[in-house]
Specification:
extended; two-stranded antiparallel sheet; about 180 residues; alpha+beta; 7 helices; 5 strands
Length: about 180
């Protein structure tokens, strides 16, 4: 840049200009649709040197090896969101874990329908006993939170939520009749 234009610019300044002007050229560093990797369909010994093969094989997962951080099915842990989670199966993906309060409710009462939520009557997210849980529609919960607010007393919260459910049902009936 200095030889051609007489301007001294650092590499960081060039990077910032490219980012600000959304100029990335044709080289994104990602595979574009239709591109193929050079090692597609080849075995290790066809595209790697023997030294690289040896290093790569020592770092690969071996069958039957269980990682140190794995937990057995039935393990319970508390995540950053404050809820308890239980491991329900081994496998890949995020469906191995379920919120403990939902798991307890579904074991006792069956699947939770869409647009319904399980709430803690005492407000304590670590108390997942069945007598502390209640299934409420999103609509009734919104009414309860808006009109009354929930507190730490399970009996009062139960009454508030039942009242909100009643108001929700009455609103539906009045809307259909009127």
């Amino acid at each position: 840049m200095y030889q051609t234009f007489g301007i001294r610019i650092t590499a960081d300044q060039c990077k910032t200009w490219r980012t600000n002007h959304k100029f990335f050229g044709s080289q994104t560093g990602r595979f574009q649709k239709g591109m193929e990797p050079i090692n597609k369909g080849k075995r290790w010994d066809e595209f790697m040197s023997p030294e690289a093969q040896k290093r790569s094989r020592t770092t690969c997962f071996k069958k039957g090896i269980i990682p140190k951080n794995s937990r057995p099915i039935g393990s319970i842990l508390q995540r950053d969101d404050g809820y308890l989670w239980i491991k329900i199966r081994d496998g890949s993906g995020r469906h191995n874990w379920k919120q403990l309060h939902r798991y307890v409710w579904e074991k006792a009462n069956g699947e939770i329908p869409a647009k319904y939520k399980i709430v803690f009557l005492d407000g304590n997210t670590t108390n997942c006993s069945l007598n502390n849980l209640m299934m409420v529609s999103y609509r009734a919960l919104a009414i309860a939170n808006h009109k009354y607010g929930l507190i730490d007393d399970p009996e009062i919260n139960f009454t508030i939520l039942k009242t909100a459910e009643l108001e929700s049902t009455l609103t539906d009936k009045q809307g259909r009749e009127g």
